[in-house]
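Hi there. Long-time user, first ticket. I'm pasting a complex I've been working with (about 542 residues overall). I'd like to know whether the download I got is complete or cut off, because the file seemed smaller than I expected. Thanks.
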Amino acid sequence: MKSITLYEYKNSFLNHIDPFCKLLYILAALSIPLILGVSVTKLIFIAISIFLIISNKVFKKVIPLFTFSAIIILTAIIIQGLFYSNNKHIILQLGPLKFYKEGLLFAYHIALNVLNILLSFAVLIFTTKPTDLIDSFVRVGFSPRFGYVLSSVFQIIPQMSETMSTISDAQKSRGMESEGNLFTRIKAFFPLISPVITSSLINTRERAIALEVRGFNSTTKKTFLNQQTRTRKDKIINIILLLLIILSSIWRIITCLK
Amino acid sequence: MSKITVTNLKYKYPHRDNLALNNISFEIQPGEFIGIVGENNSGKSTLCQSIIGLVPHFYKGGYGGSVIIDDIEVYKSDISTLCKKVGLIFQNPFNQVTGSKETVFEEIAFGLENIGIPRDEMIERINFSMKLLDIEQYKDRNPFDLSGGQMQRVAIASIIAMKPEIIILDEPTSQLDPAGSEEVFQAVTKLSNEGITIIMVEHKIEKIAAYCDKVMLMHKGELIKFDTPSEVFSLDNLSDYGINPPIFTSICKKLNLRKDDNNYPVTIEETLQLLKKERSYEQN
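Hi, the file is complete. Here it is re-exported in full:
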């Protein structure tokens, strides 16, 4: 079955780290630059994220993220460089286009933010099994129903797209045109989508029964097959990250008081 | 004491006028293997669902009479309590997979996690049920990647791991190929030998005749007859209820070959025995 998760098991360091550690890393990567107000920290965190991504062998999968963010960053550079409201000093002139220093600097900060956010999340998403992440949420008190909804998405969506291709094959074999210009494709869409929806509704009812008979609504405290593996390593990382956040807050408060 | 006692059970689905179950009463003893036969819409599935409490707790609707399992009255209990005693397996193996677990092993654990079984016992139970259904080799596969028969066995294993005392199978083999349905029947026989009470709805009448201790014949929401397979399948007006007797019974009816109790044989073994006896008479 086709998987829609970005996670891939590589037996790497981060694969064996508690998901909460990685969440705390995201928190640190986003909050510390904000607290300190120094953009160098963003660069540092970007460097750390890239290092983590490369050392955990998922760099190849992250490349599409770069191309995606490149579009955003490029737009920011053009728009801000040309039209930022505080623009004063021209730095570059390409024919009628004038790029200003202030705008480009502003775009540079946006770029850092985008990269920092994307990469720190990539550290979590590319190295964590979604069910592990959801399990750890359920363990700290999130509703198991909520957890089920989230984790079933990863299987039910590919399942539905498989049903969809079966139905589309069936319709094609009965002579329906589903390829061609936009209009034929729109026309083909409705006979395709209605069986998909009705069949998933019927399936949902049956699956609801299947869940019921397996104690889904049970009020007893849930147990877990996969043990929570919070090792000493995890604890040390957590403490370091927390300390960093606290220390930067203290530093900021002190500099403000001066 | 009876395992299941049903008295004057009546049930009507919401927004329907006709009774899906009409005044049904019977008793099932512990360890019995019961088959339910009847044409479509005769109330077989509804009856199954009334034992685990899906009727009335899941569907709502009008309810009368009582279903008592050991000493629990279904109407006053709820599904999450009953599911520890009664397991239900139904037709479509595909929809019985929870869809939230990535391996067969985790899939079987789903129910156990919900009812709060400690981890060590959970693993023990999962291994036991996988062994019983011979699916150990698929342990780390994604449940959706299995074939229908394999998936159905995973569904059965998931129920067995919850250690119910009663297992209800609602047409468990109707979507399976002959090999797949034989696998399921073998597994169910094993369970029956373990002392679990089994209730099975099935259209493969020869299988019902061969495996079941007693057969329920249902028609339009009513229980017509609840007796041994040879009593039920020897009924003269069986075809009025949309049921064909096992092929061996049909042949013996035509040949007017009866057993000592005046009923027709229902399995190939019984037929053979009878024929052998006839032949030895003729030789003498």
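A couple of notes from our side: The mean pLDDT of chain A is 88. Strands of chain A lie at 90-94, 97-100.
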